[in-house]
Structures
1.
Amino acid sequence: MTATTSPYAELKAPTTARRLLTAPTTGPLAALLLACAFFSLSTDQFLTGGNFSLIVQQVMVVGTLAIGQTLIILTAGIDLSCGAVMAFGSIVIAKMAAEGSVPPLVAIALGLVVCGGFGLLNGLLVQKIPLPPFIVTLGMLNVAFALTHIYSEEQTVTNLPGPLTALGQTFPLGHTDITYGSLVTIALFLLLAYALSSTGWGRHVYALGNSAEAARLNGIRTSRLTIGIYTVAGLLYGIAALLLISRTGVGDPQAGQTDNLDSITAVVLGGTSLFGGRGSVLGTFIGVLIVGVFRNGLQLMGVASIYQTLITGVLVILAVTVDQLSRKKAR
Amino acid sequence: MSRTTRLSSSLLRAAAVTGVAALTLTACGSGSGSGSGSKSSGSGSVKVGLITKTDTNPFFVKMKEGAEKAAKENGVQLSTAAGKFDGDNAGQVTAIENMVAAGVKGILITPSDSKAIVPAIQKARAKGVLVIALDTPTEPESAVDALFATDNLKAGQLIGEYAKAVMKGKKAKIAALDLAPGVSVGVQRHNGFLKGFGATDKDVVCAQDTGGDQAKGQTAMENCLQKAPGINVVYTINEPAALGAYTALKAKGREKDVLIVSVDGGCTGTQAVKDGKIAATSQQYPLKMAAEGVKAVVTYAKDGKKASGYTDTGVTLITDKAQDGVTAKDTGYGLENCWG
């Protein structure tokens, strides 16, 4: 724990140019741009507005989960339950609205409350008992997974009322169709990026991640802060649940099974440290896009999907290696 | 210190991607699955997409082989994709979108979730893409242009009739090692078996889900034997589950007096029939499903004629202990035509 690794170090960087070069998102951004350049040269269909709109649509669900995951990882925690909690939220929303004759907006609100409740419970267990986040969220993963399958009776929910899929609808922008859900995701990224970088709350989150004890001694109410972070993350999973329904048009009990790992992948690729206290949600956005661009680009090139898995794995190991090496040198 | 480290870390990350990109080029250059990758843009030839449930199941590996062979013969470009796990609907939706963006003429898909995939298929068809379901029908079946698949009810019925002939009127105590709740393939095979046997679910003394997995099949059989030691007929969803059941029975010394029947016709499974571990299996033909699917897309690209309705790609009962009145082929034929 040295001053050089604190997020404030960047703020003191002397020139804009230097600040840009040393920002933690510069590496991921360069990687993303290189990947885009590569795929633009490789296929005719990559570099079109429609295709970029498609990529954003494809990553919005994992992207929204990854915002919550970033907040938790910034506190040196981890959330293995995010995908399962989202799946449960999506089944609650879909089933309530499609079969339970609950007004769609009430069903959506219920889904958000349920997901937020899971987050709150995670936070309480992590903070009050306290238990390691890995264990709490591993348990919650199984709880949410089981509840999803019990409540859905293993059935996919179809014939959803219109408001549930509204975010999946498109509007034209120039020659491109954009979904409303993409805008929601981008807005959430910007909102949380602002909250983290420019509010007292954001500074407290970083301080907590750097050293919970030091943060507490400095008068930060770390207990309340931690529980709050897990709850906000839960609410974000609820929004992801709605985005998921709007995208696929159904309530799917099988959904989200690998999304916990995909969200962690995005956070790591975006340069956020798994040891807490260092990183950003904008980096995560770039991380999410890197995965989406590779998947889309390789498919356009006609490369089998297993190579996407291979490449993602290699990228994750490289990203963590870089994080570790830079930490060692900084000490 | 930290600043220079950060700078070099940025460069490292960038270098990493360049390296991976090079890896990608090598990968598609080596042509496994898609030798067409290097000339993908603007060559003007017909593109066909194949989306399977997973990349790893031998059944789908064989399906891919069939599609690749047919694509080569017909001079079309094949691109393939798969879900990450059985049931990964979102992964299949993404694959459909990317293939439509890549300008495919037709998509062959084995739906992981028969209902959940429907809206994505509708979007693709609205853009003029021919969509054919392979192996597993969508719900409703009319959501795709055509279905090329095994008649799973018939596959179950064949082993049911065979088991009935072997039992010769002896009182049957049946164990059913099923797939998973709500999955149509499993339900149809299960019901087909009961129909062929002339039994009802009341005659099934133990039913368990296995996910078609050997280890889970073994556990399920062990538990069934605990529950009902008198079991003498075992219906299994596929041969891995059957082999799991065999292991469990062998541990109890019961492998000789319990009849195991199965569906699938994979090479390992067919060999197990030859070795006497499984009495009979209904063999299906994934290679044929994929090959006919590719041909249908080629026809559509040439004449604009869309394939429609259901095409039965056939199923054959394989056993070395044939019974009177039940049509079957021996394992010699089975091993020549097996997949995996």
2.
Amino acid sequence: MKISDCDPLQGRRLQVLSPEGKADPELLPEFDDESLRRIFGQLLMGRLFDRHCMALQREGRLGTYAPVEGQEACQVGSVLALAKGDWVVPSFRETMAAICRGVPLETIFRYWMGSEEGSRIPRELRFLPVSIPVGSHTLHAAGMAMAIQYKGEADAVLCYFGDGATSEGDFHEALTFAGVRRAPVVFFCQNNGWAISVPRSKQCAAASLAAKGVGYGFPGIQIDGNDPFAAYLATRTALERARSGEGPTLIEAVTYRLGPHTTSDDPLRYRENAEVEKMRALEPLVRYRQFLKQRGLWSEAWENELAASHQARIEDAARRAESAPPPTPESVFDSMFAALPAHLARQRSELLDALKEG
Amino acid sequence: MAQMNMVEAINLALREEMERDPDVILLGEDVGKEGGVFRVTEGLQQRFGENRSIDTPLAESGIVGCAFGMALLGLKPVAEIQFMGFLYPAYDQIISHVGRIRNRTRGVYSAPMVIRMPYGGGIHAPEHHSESTEALLAHTPGIKVVIPSSPADARGLLKSAIRDPDPVLFLEPKRIYRAIKEEVPEGEVLVPLGKARRVREGGDLTLVAWGAMVREAQKAAEELAGQGIEAEIIDPRSISPLDEAAIVESVKKTGRCVVVHEAPRTCGLGAEISALLMEQALLYLKAPVERVSGFDTVMPLPKGEHFYLPDLRRILRGARKVLEF
């Protein structure tokens, strides 16, 4: 597959799996049956984890959470294309990518439960912590790619962001730098249709976001974001380009946010339920289940068994996250600098004294 | 007069000013159809249309930079930044352009605009949603920085801010957005910018607090009153310009001062107020000015934010320190 076959300026979009679950035999990657089933397992894990977070939030056991429901295919497919040495720079809706990359479920829970320990992701996983300010992390990905290039390493960087982020100034600076330096980075936009209440059409007047790459001197490709194979193929091709010194690629995965922006948001205020219902039929699990069924790789019993085992793992991780010790007052200060400066040491003991006095 | 919380009072101020002056225009992320993530601008797009309540793309520098351009041509933009933690992409516009234009052009141009934003901690929000970097703004030349601490004040101050001929940053303490209800007048009742409010009268010490910290100071004053100590509370309502006279006058009377703010301590407003008292009330001071503040740390995530925010216990400790000096 070539990126140039799917020129967004000509309105082409990469799709391997049709909404009915039919695969294009020319494009279908060569996965064995076990791998094909594993992809479903990951999609399902993402869905169940996400729903558990939503449920815990409603019970007051987890803070504000940004659900990923509907966007699982983008993340499962793209992470599948990564090599172990590649870096992932997420925004805040990449829970699924984190799980696929091996970030412990307990760590993910702890972040959303409001603890700094949830950002303690082992460096070996090469997965940066959540970035809340929109779009600013795209520059970090460009810089990391420049560092890889400088050091002559073979790795690449995969950076996720949403359609809203493409409106921020930092996004344009990131593409400018990465393009000029031909840095080994893949910009992966999950266009889920909405930046909180603002629809994609009011976010940017351009016909496609993928085409923006062209303006910065590198290709863009628009893909069906509810198709894990399209996400895999596009990311793999873009990573190959990056590794061979050809520079960055911008991927626009057209997907749909089925849930709210976060648990603090009420989408009924700004979008029609009919739109959501229409998109439900196109969501990745439905489509991929059809695909497996057609190949005789799916049964209800198998899915139920899988779901039960995922659910047990999720609940166990949630329990461990909840029973983790609360932060100490010292923890407010102790990671601020490598060595605690005197003024912070004073503020620290002041707080400890105040707490002691009761 | 109706009982209102701060969200409703700000909404009322916006509605009244939009009715009064067709040049008043709202813009920001989600301000229109959704009515803002805190519902502060609820119903205004329905009432005034999409050209006066504009849902913008997700771009803070774009919002403030475009609002500045509108203001140059005589409109009165009221821009919303969704959370103060997202202000920083726009800070370049504020410090490089918004705050300088009148001075730079010797008055040929000006930027009569308002930038509203929720700020501060205490609501268990995610990262970057609880910061209170007010001192950065107070340190910026050419802008005014206003912080209400009650619904009636919020309405009266915002109306003044919209009518002000210069740029005003209007920081809304989201922790008390819905926590306080009071009678809020309608119509031409304005609260002037740069004038403090004496929230409580007392002769033994002065507590200077603004935003959500006023309520904490009130709790401390109640507690002290139970011990026979009368605390006076001064809410400056604008941290820039600061009502120096009101603070100095109160401290000349009480001889003791505790400044309470949730922003980090170093180079915070507490330092400014302390220096002010050194300059203008040194011989009246019976104790050094005490600062009860947030720490010079990253604002902790929800599980740790109670360590950071000044509370009753820490304010009482500060008060004891100046009383027992």
3.
Amino acid sequence: MKFKDTDIQSLIGKVLRTGMIISMGIVFFGGILFLYRHGHSIPNYKVFKGIPPFLQNTGSLLHASFQLKGQAIIQLGIILLIATPILRVVFSTLGFVLEKDYLYVGISMVVLAIIFTSMLSGHAG
Amino acid sequence: MSVIIFTVIILIGSYFAGLLGSLTGLGGGVVIIPLLTLLLKVDIHYAIGASLVSVIATSSGSAAAYVKEGITNMRLGMFLEIATTAGAMCGAMLAVYIPTQYIAILFGVILLFSAILSLRKKAEQIITEKSYLAAKLKLNSSYPTAAGPVEYSVRNVGGGFVMMAFAGVISGLLGIGSGALKVIAMDTIMRIPFKVSTTTSNFMIGVTASASAVVYLQRGYISPGLVMPVVIGVLFGAFTGSKILVHTKSSGWLRWVFAIVVSFLAGQMIYNGITGNI
């Protein structure tokens, strides 16, 4: 059976929906923990300071999530949410490979390369 | 003000931003940033981060539904994403060097522009003359209607590509989806039918926003305690909006409400930018 555009489209629809449901579930769960612990403290977003270091580093972020720190769990959910459209590009690349549309395999890989460069350049500047 | 009250205010505000955004098709980001910065005095950097994440959530949510219907032109979206992601990356990098005042003024100008565009009449157009580049890139396609599939061609691929790069820069710089600019690129420059251009734009917004979000994530713009109520609120609002949209026929008055609200916010952003209160 030949792999068609409609097959890719239904696959991509599923990737987007699943990624969104899972990540929003994680954000929601983390949000409840965060409000339970910090609900009565004073929010401070008036001056930009960036986020606490334990949320910045992958290792400490995972560690804090396992300790059920609300903010860390929310952040994991957010990272998954950001990754969902990128995963979508990965899946469409695979779809174009199956369709043997090599022009679009190349185009999708250029898009992935740009996102990857963007990821690496985040700390610079 | 405690974190709980702050969170509830943002939840309610974001719900209405998502509702209004989905009813008018312009995305919630344009309302979220003024809400956070003007009303709650949140630093614009945090506001941009929160808005971008909400843009990704709504794009993924609605794109999932549109893609299944087969209206979205995936090849066109993928090809133009080269321009939008490259632009978004540059925009996110530029954001660090541009003083917040100028970002606020630019945001106001883009808001005004979006408000005017949302009032524009939309007529379905079908172009069938073939362009060499569009044929080479397999961009010409068809979309389903009640009367069977309609074939359409794409024009001025180069012009559309340049406009998309600009939309990407604005999206990365201001933390919005810049759906309005994407639609102009596809519908006015490339002459793509309105239904296809809006759904394809929606489909692309998530990827564009992700390209700049990965930069902002590492810079600490994306603060979990703030993003949480924004994302949840916007998503529920957008969901309600899509339900209402199915049941109403005319959205004419809604577009006017939206245009007036957005123009007012735009004026506030520009004023605060000029006086340096942001």
4.
Amino acid sequence: MSTTLDRPADWKAPQDAGPVDGAPLASVIPAEAERRLAEAWEDSPGLRGWFGTVDHKKIGIRYIITAFVFLTIGGVEALVMRLQLAQPNNNLLNPEQYNQLFSMHGVTMIFLYALPILSGFSNYLWPLMLGSRDMAYPRLNALSFWLYVVSGIFLYVSFPLGAAPNDGWFNYVPNGSAEYDPGPNIDVYCLGMIFLGISTAVGSANFVVTLLRMRAPGMSLNRVPIIIWGTLTASAANLLAIPAVSLACLMLWFDRNFGTHFYDIGGGGQPLLWQHLFWMFGHPWVYAVVLPAMGMVSDGLPVHCRRPLVGYTLVAMATVTTMVVGFGVWLHHMFATGLPSLALSFFSAASFVIAIPSAISVFAWIATIWTGRARLTVPFLFFTSVILLFVIGGVSGVMTASLALDWQLTDTYFIVAHLHYVLIGINLFAVVGAVYHWFPKMTGRMMNERLGYWVFGLMFGGFNVAFLPMHLLGLEGMPRRVYTYGADMGFGTTNLVVTVGAITFAGGIGLFFLSILLARLSGRPAGPNPWDGPSLEWSIPSPPPAYNFAVIPLIASRHPLWEDRLLAEDQPHSRLAEGYLLDEGKETLGVTPLDAEPDVILKMPGDSILPVLLSVSLLPLFGGMLLLKPWFAAAGAAAAFAILIAWFWPHPVLQREEQARMYV
Amino acid sequence: MLCLIATEGILFVYLIFSYGYLASQSRGPFVPDGAPSLDIALPATIALLVSSATAEWSKRSARSGNLARSQLALACTIVLGAIFVVMSGIEWAHKPFAFTDTAYSSIYFLLTGTHLTHVLVGLLALGVLLALSLGGRVKAGHDQHRTLVTLYWHFVDAIWLFVFATIYLSPRLT
Ligand code: HEM
Ligand SMILES: [Cu+2]
């Protein structure tokens, strides 16, 4: 796919390039070249183009929309649970229905909403922020999206059949073993998780390679936006962590269907092995669903404070450190399992250490607000509320990391409160802020401010009314995952308040979706840079053309669009209007991993139907495994193999020798 | 692609962790009848290692333009890989226990089975590469496919050394 590049004679490393000449893009790039670019990068028309697109922007937006659909489904499940819990001895739901609801709510929110939505944003934003025309492997990108959709459907068709997973999102054995939970419910969970894991692994690999190879020349690692660090860290962690849960699920599936003894004490197996494998994956995963979101805050908040982020390097390092430490603390989810106390104390202490990098980010954000000139925009409100909710969630997190407290609090509503403060606080609030922030880029239209304040008010108010009292319920001893409680226990009033808060919060989300729709239809035009942002995505039109950048820019600082106010006249400036044109077919620039020196011209694949086909071919594979029909599964595997051959079929265009041309 | 291979590698780390965990927690002797015999495993291992060398040979021959030698070496690789698969099958058939007997038998078959699946996938890839090469589709200059498949094959072989150490050598240490 790549060829070596003869460096043009007049190439200078951007560090010593002259000051920007200020020429607007249109006057520099001939219309003819832009037409050629558009032709090379537009998708084919019709259904083929729709299913076959590999454009990272379209895939990103589809990811986001799909994740919001799952958020809505998971939200409805939550509201039904809350209605059930609104008063004591309620019988809206029976215990089995409640089990399926909280399990599917957790699985949906964690696996089908929280991570995919961040992948969606990263997919959309990465090439735009890095100054590239696409991700490193566009077809792999499409594959990870379609796998996500198909595996989501796989998990959800079980619901109407009454066979949805019913053992919680972490699915402890032996509760989840065949003896206590016959029926297909847990098999759906096991196979669905493996299925979804393929999607995530494939997507993560793409992010890692994209970061290393697809940056604009001069964008060294200390010049990339923080969200890139967040997603990179999360992706690396996914690659290391996902096999643990896939393996755990595979072994459980064997235990349940074929009578092996991985978790079964009878044949020498170990139930706790499940918890080890699950939390080796699960703990890093909780960072995977917040680090990119923290990156959104780190990149979005400064724009609305009109100053660069305070402590860029520290925040970037803290992001990576969080993950490294995060791999070592899985045992803190197992404090109540009777492990040796020395191990427990060690892991408890290690868990406290995680608070340090988190605190660095929080202080960096506060300092940014403090020393900046903030505008009270809607994104600003959301990003700022992340800080507050993060602090509350962090404090309850430190509490549960302490052994003595955890023994009291585990499996009470205190945990439910904590996990929602963290997940909704750092993920959902950051995401809604990010939608307000980047919506103008994605669609070319602004979202309504006045409506935005209402969305914020309802969400923030409703959220705290719903989840703050849960801490109390937990301290008073209300267990989680019970479908009802007695009237004499004194939980009734608080639970009613919680339910009212939850409904208010859901109303805020509803209003948010409505305002997205309104803005899409009739929002005020945004222009390329409505917030006066400093990073590369704001330098091109909104919405961006299919090829993103007419010329691949040359970067000389962390804030290419703010250089006129941050850099002295004689310091080297980025050049956004002159750089590599690369207009001979679908191509973009590859750079060296560390210094981002231009290296090769990459020929990019056009739209392709193979990702959809490959994803769909896995449906009979997993369906056959679920129904224990080997021939069905084998047919799916054979189809997948045939498609893979087509995928890797030697392609003359992608192997053609090409010369890079420098456009000046 | 390297990233995806890395994830697959990690999968084996977790598999070996599970083996170790089950072994460390077991009350009685974990491996029935002592360490498994090397009679079949050792020759199979050698076949696999040699196949890595022939795979490398094939790649280098293609690079230096000798397509015919490259195809021959590729065929040797496939044969050696197939020998490994057959010997593993024989070994499996001679085990006195079944997949579902004990925790040991379960993890034994899962660990070797997962590896065997990777070998089979590698053999399929080698086969496709050979077919494409014979059909004139992958020529001497086209390095990418060859590099990928060879890399994967080396990976499969390297992983085997860890699996081998876990199953055959670690029980000898106690
Ligand atoms: C309207 C907003 C929400 C409400 C009212 C809500 C409510 C609930 C309720 C009632 C439970 C079950 C507690 C139990 O019986 O133990 C629960 C569990 C859970 N929720 Fe939410 N939730 C909301 C949003 C979210 C979001 C956005 C996420 C993640 C991003 C999330 C993640 C979870 C998880 C992981 C569990 C644990 C499930 C389990 O026990 O296996 N929730 N939530
Ligand atoms: Cu944890």
